[in-house]
TrEMBL record:
Domain Cytidylate kinase positions: 5-215
Main location: cytoplasm
InterPro entries, sorted: Cytidylate_kin, Cytidylate_kinase_dom, P-loop_NTPase
The species this protein was found in: Candidatus Weimeria bifida
Highest taxon, organism lineage: Bacteria
CDD domains associated with the record: CMPK
Catalytic activity: CMP + ATP = CDP + ADP; dCMP + ATP = dCDP + ADP
Keyword ATP-binding assigned: yes
A molecular function (GO) term: ATP binding
Protein name (Swiss-Prot/TrEMBL): Cytidylate kinase
Length: 218
């Protein structure tokens, strides 16, 4: 049976950076499930579908073909044949993903795809519902979190480094709103699985978190 490490937690806790590094060190495949929800969000924005119209989104999502492709070990997201890996990182796409990920049909399609990937390969998979829904029998489950203030400051520094002029308070408020939406949605809300290990990265470096997870896996 394949080995599965599930990493869940709120936006900005460092999941993707840590999951990517861990997967590289263990020679596992990294699966970023948020990227899949982002692709569905992007599809709706591109096709002018009202993301708040559940029926319209569920119907349109049947025409969105999301695939993952690995080039030199890096995950690329292919939406109906086009590589959208960069586009899905835009702020508005993240917001759309948070909305469309509430809909049952969207979740069941992507969950099926994620389960299939994890059956075929050893994976480090990150998201919101991996330990609770997608891989309930994962070898190791981590719930990675950090305070909203620390996550906001990390995002602020990232945007500054890109030459933007962000407002820290607005970023922290946005993070809190996203947390609330992800934690209170009806289907598969973000929550720590009963058998997940809680890791708070507020005062830890990336390497410290990776080492901690490796020691838990060993
Ligand atoms: O991790 P991220 O910011 O790329 O995720 C984008 C959105 O997708 C996030 O607001 C919640 C949703 N998501 C989800 O509902 N379930 C997952 N397994 C991964 C992401």
């Amino acid at each position: 049976m394949s080995k599965q490490i599930a990493i869940d937690g709120p936006a900005g806790a460092g999941k993707s950076t840590i999951a990517k590094k861990l997967a590289g060190d263990l020679s596992f495949v990294y699966v970023d499930t948020g990227a899949m929800y982002r692709s569905i969000g992007l599809y709706m924005l591109k096709h002018g579908i009202d993301i708040y119209d559940k029926a319209a989104v569920e119907k349109a999502s049947q025409n969105a073909d999301v695939r993952l492709k690995y080039i030199d070990g890096t995950q690329h997201v292919i939406l109906n044949g086009a590589d959208v890996s960069k586009e899905i990182r835009e702020e508005q796409v993240g917001k759309a993903a948070s909305v469309v990920s509430q809909y049952g049909q969207v979740r069941s399609n992507l969950t099926a795809l994620q389960k299939k990937l994890a059956e075929e390969e050893n994976v480090v998979m990150d998201g919101r519902d991996i330990g609770t829904c997608v891989l309930p029998n994962a070898t190791l489950k981590i719930y990675l979190t950090a305070s909203a203030e620390v996550r906001g400051k990390r995002r602020f520094d990232e945007l500054k480094a890109k030459g933007e002029n962000p407002d820290l308070d607005t970023i922290i408020e946005d993070i809190k709103k996203r947390d609330k939406a992800d934690m209170t949605r009806e289907i598969s809300p973000l929550k720590q699985a009963d058998d997940a290990v809680l890791v708070d990265s507020s005062d830890m470096t990336i390497d410290e978190v990776v080492d901690k997870i490796k020691s838990l896996y060993a």
